[in-house]
Amino acid sequence: MTPTAAPVSGFMSMKGGGYYSRATVGARHVIDGATGLVLDALERMAPDDDGTVFTMADMGCADGGTSLGMVVTVLGELRRRLPSRPLQMVYTDLPRNDFSELFRTVLGSGHLDGIGDLSVFASGTSFHRPIFPPSTLNLGFSATASHYTDAVPCAISGHVHMVGATDSERAAWVEQGRLDWERILTSRARDLAAGGRAGRVAFGGGGRRAAGGFG
Ligand SMILES: C[S@@+](CC[C@H](N)C(=O)[O-])C[C@H]1O[C@@H](n2cnc3c(N)ncnc32)[C@H](O)[C@@H]1O
To answer: Tell me: the pLDDT tens digits for 74-92?
Structure first.
């Protein structure tokens, strides 16, 4: 086992220039399929139309293309429910993400033009850390991203996939994943506003191909 502990933020990015969302139709289908979960979460939140800023986030957004349909639908529903509240949409990913392409995709496409009083921002802070000022995130979403660890605990010797890991290598990755999941949950607990919701869609094991939920 070769200890490396390389921080993932130092090398991780999807291929830029719009390639990611052109080549990853399956991920878009997953997010489109999860749109109902987001709308259900919104229904349960029943946010007041009290004039304060409402913040939504897509965490691990890549170039924003795969989530654009869901984001347009949910922001449209927020605008309908909350006419007095300024909307803030925040796209987050790691620092090496192609954020220029993200803005070309979500703003250059004009898909968000019909949603009034909307501000769009991006953050390069990892979702393993707090991203927002405490208690200010109302609705967080993340798809097909939370399986990425914060660091590489060790190389998998003689293989490129977890199926080839030795017992000790596998144990190191399991422990890294456990710590990172805890970091994700505690960071969102800090970010979320009272009554807020954060949900994610992720690869599932044990016969389920994908799992998702809002809590
Ligand atoms: C497979 S892509 C999924 C993109 C999009 N959410 C989708 O479902 O199509 C995973 C994304 O998560 C990002 N990512 C990985 N680790 C991250 C972290 N710690 N914080 C924020 N983004 C991260 C990657 O850079 C990448 O853009």
So the answer is: 999 999 999 999 999 999 9
pLDDT of residue 2: 45
CATH of the domain at 202: 3.40.50.150
Ligand 1 pocket, 123 CB below 6 A? no
Strands 118-123 vs 54-59: parallel, antiparallel or unpaired:
unpaired
pLDDT in tens, 170-209: 999 999 999 999 999 999 999 999 999 999 998 776 555 5
Classified as helix, coil or strand, 126 is coil
Sites in the chain below the pLDDT cut of 70: 1-5, 205-215
Q: Is the shortest distance between the CB of 82 and ligand 1 below 6 Å?
A: no
Best residue among 9, 11, 13, 14 to mutate for probing ligand 1, ranked by most atoms within 8 Å of CB: 14
Question: What is the count of structural domains for the chain?
Answer: 1
Q: Helix (H, G, I), strand (E, B), or coil: what is residue 66?
A: coil
> DSSP letters of 136-194?
-EEEEEEES-TTS-SEEEE--TT-SSGGG--HHHHHHHHHHHHHHHHHHHHHHHHHEEE
Q: What angle do CA 23, 24, 29 make, to 5 degrees?
A: 140
Q: Distance, CA 79 to ligand 1 centroid (Å)? A: 27
* Full residue range of the structural domain in which residue 142 is found: 3-214
pTM for the predicted model, two decimal places: 0.92
CA 150 to ligand 1: nearest atom: 19
